[in-house]
Amino acid sequence: MTTAEQDAAETVGGPGPERTRWAAVAAVAFGTFLVVTAEQLPIGLLTAVGSELSVSEGTAGLMVTVPSLVAAVAAPLVPVLVGSLDRRVLLLALLALMTAANVGTALAPGFAVLVASRVLVGVAVGGFWAVAGGLAVRLAVPAHVPRATAVVFGGVGAANVFGVPIGTLLGEFTGWRIAFTALSALALAVLVALLAVLPPLAAARPVRPALLAAQMRNPAVRVGILATFLLVTGHFAAYTFVAPALRDLSGIDARLVGPLLFGFGVAGMAGNFAAGAALARRAHRTVLVIAIALAAVLPLFPLLGRSPVGGIVLLLVWGLAYGGVSVGLQTWMIRVAPRAVEAASALWVSVFNLSIGLGALVGGLVVDAVSARGVLWLGGACCLAAALAVWTARADQRLG
């Protein structure tokens, strides 16, 4: 942690500093909950949107693809463009943009306007993640940084378990426009919460293009970026098609897939906090165990998941392991780039978002050309490669 970052962390408090710090961490967690929900909510509403706006479901899928790609570009670009702007002001501005973007989606008269509003969502998502992902080092004392990071990333699991399903149900019963109106109200509420509890956060070190490029000269940062690319690509290549895998390989009734994916999300939340506790002691070993677990569970699916019980058990283990990926790799980036946390985080967020889209794309090609089994083997191979990459950084003392 830099001196400026330490000073920023120390000024969070005032009376009851520890309580104030954790209130700020919780507010940032609500922010991550919001941005993930905003990015993924259209998945459950594509049919309704396509029907009303007279576009195919495939075209409506641009509501998900566009913000993911924009977020990948915005993650490194937004910190560069804002320079030394107070990060509290930046986060508030991004949430104001998110609020306006979701209002635009709710009121869109046609699909072109709707996609334009989703571009703004992508800017808000990428910019918010780039800053929020590394805020734990600013808002918590050093000993509590892994736990604070786990709390921040708990918002990701909560969005998958609660935010997206509840938003989808709301859209089904009241209309998709109401769902996005509710999302804009939530964004405004999170903005108010951050305004109330987040302290001033002067930029410890403005992000410049040269600083971004310099991170890639750090071998441990390169390993973290490579591991992120492989793990996220492998996961989404397989997870995008988990429903047909459960149905065709495990013989699970299609009506049970939704509840089982809810269970996957709950297991992921448990994995997030378990990883957060382990990372405080041994970051390298924790990330390595996560990668090995994913490298094992995915290819085991076609072998041991050929019954409903086997499929369910492997799905929950999968969720438990993947739940630690975000907090594990973000902690990795914090540890190996302590003097450039925001720059390293921006690169990480960019690669993470690109890998989501690439994983789904490659997975679709493999499913069409081979089968659901093929995509599970592909996911396992990617995770095994990630484990090997992580293993090469075993001597880095910064990772514990």
Automatic annotation (TrEMBL):
Localization of this protein: Cell membrane
Major facilitator superfamily (MFS) profile domain span: 24-398
Keyword Transmembrane: yes
Keywords on record: Cell membrane, Membrane, Transmembrane, Transmembrane helix
Pfam families per record: MFS_1 (PF07690)
Alphabetical list of InterPro entries matching this protein: MFS, MFS_dom, MFS_Efflux_Transporters, MFS_trans_sf
Primary location class: membrane
One GO CC term, this protein: plasma membrane
Top-level taxon of the source organism: Bacteria
TM regions (residue ranges): 22-41, 61-82, 89-113, 119-141, 148-170, 176-198, 219-241, 261-280, 287-305, 311-334, 346-369, 375-393
Name of protein: Putative MFS family arabinose efflux permease
Species the sequence originates in: Actinocorallia herbida
